[in-house]
Structures are given as C-alpha cells and as structure tokens.
Amino acid sequence: MPHRQVPFSPDRPLRIGLTGGIGSGKTRVADQLGELGAAIIDTDLIAHALTQPGGSAIEPLRALFGDHVITPDGALDRAVMRDLVFRDATARARLEGVIHPMIGTEVARQAAESTGLYQVFVVPLLVESGRWRERVDRICVVDCDEATQIARVGQRSGLSPDAVQRILDVQASRQARLDVADDVIVNDGQTTPELLRERVADKHAFWMSQLGTSVPAAGA
C-alpha cells in the first residue's frame, strides 16, 4: 500500500488513529507503540474508567436505563448492557449519547497533556463513528481474519462463537476498515509475537521518518 504523506504541522504532534475489529490485537499494538515512545490515548480504557464503580457515567446510565444495568458493586454490567443494545437499536444510541461526550472530554484532556513522540488514539469504532478522519493525520488498521478474531475473543472472554459473531456483525467489516487505512499492521493467526513486534517497529520507524527523525530498522 502506498503511503500518504503526513500533513505534518510543527505546531502540534503527529496524530495516528489506531483501530481494528474485536480480537485483532490493537491493544497489544498500542502497548508496543507506547514502549517505543508514542503517547497512547485509548478510548476503550477511558470508557472502562467511566463505567467502573464511582465512574462519572454510572449515575447517568442508572437514571437512563435503571438499576438492572448496574452491578452490586456499582459498575456498569457489561453483559446486561451488551444484551440490551443487541435487542434494542435505540439503546445503543442512548448509551452513546451519555458515554461519547464524556470520552471526548477526557480524550481532549489527555491529548493536551501528552508528551510522547507522536499521539496514538486507540478507537475501536473509528470507522463506524465517522468523526475521526478529520481528527487524525493517518489511520492505522490492525488487520485480522474473522476466524482468528472469534478464536481469540472466545479464549480470553469465554464468549461463544455465536456471541462473538454478533459483535462482529455490528462492527465495520474488515474491508471497510482496510478501505480507509493509510497504514496496516497484519496480526492474523500466522503472526508470531516476534513478527508483530517487528511490524510495529517498522511502522513506528516510518512515522518517525515523516517527522524527519530516523530510527534503526526492526532487528537492526
């Protein structure tokens, strides 16, 4: 894939939007980019913090959906909410109406305070949101086939293949993500941890080269 030149401005950091389907390995990629010096701003981690006991979203969600979506210890019951949004299309929009503005505020705060070599915004639903193309300089997709996604998610969470497939069905398709990608990091079932680390390091080196900074190639 030919690389698009970064419209880099010295007045702000280079901004990378990192996305991928469930089970693609984008969290592992983000962790490795963080080890290489990038500032990681993870919208999924922010959403989890907002919906933990004492999180800012808990009481608004309780008021909107009722006590049954909150666990006894005061966190969002993700299994209950997941079932609700699959059964009721309006529930997803109401949930997002509460969560998304809060996430946006925290993303902006973390970005303003970040000090990394460049900024990586980890956004699982980047393609679906339609709002991120103009917010980032490049979109990087962690690519993976569906069979591997289903196996990984089932192994880590215990969800059945049918349950994982329902999640995949409401996410953007693999092709839709690839269609908007400026950069792709393949992390399929044949990708070893060592190979993934090399691919991440190569992408880091490319982005740094766009900023006029060279780094050693992976394995050098």
Describe the protein.
It is a single chain. The chain is of the alpha/beta class. It folds into 2 domains: 12-38 and 118-215, Rossmann fold, CATH 3.40.50; 46-115, no CATH class. Helix content is 51%, strand content 10%. It contains 10 helices and 5 strands, in the order βαβααααβαβαααβα. The chain has a 5-stranded parallel sheet with strand order 2-3-1-4-5, with helices on both faces. Helix 2 (43-50) packs across helix 5 and helix 4 crosses helix 5. The protein is globular and about 55 Å long.
Number of strands: 5
Percent of residues in β-strands: 5-15%
Alpha carbon gap, first and last residue:
23 Å
For the residues shown, what is the average pLDDT? 90
Looking at this structure, what is the CATH superfamily of the largest domain? P-loop containing nucleotide triphosphate hydrolases
Counted up, domains total 2
| Main pleated sheet | 5 strands, parallel
The neighbouring-strand order within the major sheet is 2-3-1-4-5
- The poorly predicted ranges are 1-6
Q: What's the shape?
A: globular
Question: If you compute it from the alpha carbons, what radius of gyration comes out, rounded to the nearest whole angstrom?
Answer: 18 Å
Which sequence of SSEs, written as H and E, runs from N to C?
EHEHHHHEHEHHHEH
Secondary-structure arrangement, i.e. CATH architecture of the largest domain: 3-Layer(aba) Sandwich
Helix content percent band: 40-55%
Please give the CATH class of the largest domain: Alpha Beta
Number of helices: 10
What is the fold named in CATH at topology level of the largest domain? Rossmann fold
Structural class assignment: alpha/beta
